[in-house]
Design brief:
CATH architecture of the largest domain: 3-Layer(aba) Sandwich
Number of helices: 10
Strand content: 15-25%
Bound molecules: the ligand Nc1nc2c(c(=O)[nH]1)N[C@@H](CN(C=O)c1ccc(C(=O)N[C@@H](CCC(=O)O)C(=O)O)cc1)CN2
Order of helices and strands: EHEHEHEHHHEHEHEEEEHEH
CATH class of the largest domain: Alpha Beta
Number of strands: 11
CATH topology of the largest domain: Rossmann fold
């Protein structure tokens, strides 16, 4: 292997150590941070992620409430629960697991969460504040990507960051965060022409498109740092958006799947929940 591995599990463990200290400090002051997670329906991957969030809260001593609602829950019922959680002093963070069933308006739900408890950073106010550089909750996966780069000694200033994918959850916010750190940023997407020509210009390549193994060795220049945000379930198990075996031969540093960005998502959620409790 030419490049070195960016070990998400190891970095997540280190960051969680710091979060643990902050939880302990809050508890000394009589404050227990609290996170409420709402899951609608029975998507197996979502159920697993919610279980992982609950387990991590318990490990860190964060109060955890999980609401598992039936697939046919109405939008009004869901908004009612969010309003109740907005007014609950035990709860510092509220997260609605995505994706939601089709009959529910995702934007309406996310904008009903109190922006001060919006630990996912998906409320329009937090999205807007992030873009203009004001105080905001930073969405967990993009935040995790930036922390991984920083912990791996990768400087962003002046670098060409190419983001493949323009989702609200990952592509757009990670591009914003890289820009704030003085990178030159290109966002590529499904309609981008000559994608390999663009990805080969990257110093740092961040891929979040949800298509198994779509970034091949030929699309990556020697010495690039490659961050794979994709999690795709294929017959052989979990794979990313990057053809790991091929690309690792040319990359300077690369994240694996699993064990790369994934563990950082839940870690940064814990960070945001503790931050919300500290702000209170
Ligand atoms: N409200 C939200 N919904 C969703 C988010 C989000 O940030 N907020 N992100 C994803 C899912 N997600 C957290 O919710 C998540 C995805 C992956 C992992 C993770 O640790 N993955 C492991 C593999 C785990 C496995 O075996 O499946 C890894 O990559 O090593 C954690 C959280 C969509 N929804």
């Amino acid at each position: 292997m030419a490049g070195t591995l960016i070990d998400g599990k190891l970095i997540a463990k280190k960051v969680r150590g710091d979060i643990q200290k902050r939880v302990d400090k809050l508890k000394e002051k009589g404050v227990t941070p609290g996170l409420a997670v709402v899951l609608v329906g029975h998507d197996p991957a979502s159920q697993a992620y919610v279980g992982m969030k609950e387990k991590t809260c318990i490990k860190l001593g964060i109060h955890s409430e999980v609401y598992r609602l039936a697939e046919e829950t109405t939008q009004e019922e869901l908004l009612g629960l969010i309003t109740k959680l907005n007014n609950d002093p035990k709860i510092n963070g509220i997260l609605v697991q995505l994706p939601l069933p089709k009959h529910i308006d995702e934007g309406k739900v996310l904008d009903t969460i109190d922006p001060e408890k919006d630990v996912d950073g998906f409320h329009s106010i937090n999205v807007g504040n992030l873009v203009i550089g004001k105080d905001a909750f930073v969405p967990c996966t993009p935040y995790g990507v930036i922390v991984m780069l920083e912990e791996s000694g990768v400087e962003l200033t002046g670098k060409h960051v190419v983001v493949v994918g323009r989702s609200n959850i990952v592509g757009k916010p990670v591009a914003t965060l890289a820009l704030q750190r003085h990178a030159t940023v290109t966002i590529a997407h499904s309609r981008t022409k000559n994608l390999p020509e663009i990805t080969r210009q990257a110093d740092i390549l961040i891929v979040a498109v949800g298509r198994a193994n779509m970034i091949t060795k030929e699309m990556v220049r020697e010495g690039t740092v490659v961050i794979d945000v994709g999690i795709n379930r294929v017959e052989t198990g979990l794979v990313g958006d990057v053809d790991f075996e091929g690309v690792k031969e040319v990359a300077a540093q690369i994240t694996p799947v699993p064990g790369g960005v994934g563990p950082m998502t839940i870690t940064m959620l814990m960070h945001n929940t503790v931050l919300s409790a500290e702000r209170r």
